[in-house]
Amino acid sequence: MKPSRLPSAFGHLFRTAAAAPQPLQTRCLHRQAEYVPKIPTPTPFCPDVASFLKLIGRGLSQHTAKFTTWEALFSLTSPQLKELGIEPPRTRRYLIQWREKYKSGHFGPGGDIKHVQDGKAKLAVEEIEKGPLEVVRRVVNIPFDKDLKEVSEADKVRVDGYSAEGKAVSGPYALPLKGTKSAIVAVTEGMWEEKRGRKIDGGERRRAEVRFKRRVAERRAQREAMGFS
């Protein structure tokens, strides 16, 4: 290669290297523009925004009016939730985490219930004879206005998280019906809530300082009680 052509060759190489990232950036922006959030199908026990926010608790039901549709609840980003006034940040993170769980089909107690009327579901203990001395009991969800004997096998829905203790339904928020082997489960505030850990003596960073000052105050109080200044 002639010396006079070296600058032009290097210049062409540098221009090519500088222009290379541009198609990659364009593809990334194109993929981002095409992203469509997954909107889950409402379930009978959690059919709308109000029910979802009520179930997951932490005071989120006070923000119900800020979400105009089910789609908005599951599609708004964290900055958009902040603009709506969902504060503090840990509350937004909690909401987003529960949205992802719901999308994956992971619900709290009663999430798999099918027969619901006005936010209430009826559970009953079904007894199945396996042999002369063997009886298996299981909890099923049945239509609210029917007794177990009136329900077909197709309308009996097995429910996770609930079991039969004798002839009674045992499980979260199950209220027994007197004189029957049935119970009512209703959509309740905080029914699916994941409780936060308690901060004792100010949390990990301030705990030693808080406890030290408390011991100093206790010793001072003991000295004063014994007549020492």
Automatic annotation (TrEMBL):
SMART domains to which the protein is assigned, alphabetical: IGR (SM01238)
Family listed: Belongs to the mitochondrion-specific ribosomal protein mS41 family.
GO CC terms, sorted: mitochondrion
Domain Small ribosomal subunit protein mS41 SAM: 49-105
Record's subcellular location: Mitochondrion
Key word Transmembrane helix present: no
PANTHER family: PROTEIN FYV4, MITOCHONDRIAL (PTHR28235), SMALL RIBOSOMAL SUBUNIT PROTEIN MS41 (PTHR28235:SF1)
Record protein name field: Small ribosomal subunit protein mS41
Chief localisation class: mitochondrion
Keywords, ordered alphabetically: Mitochondrion
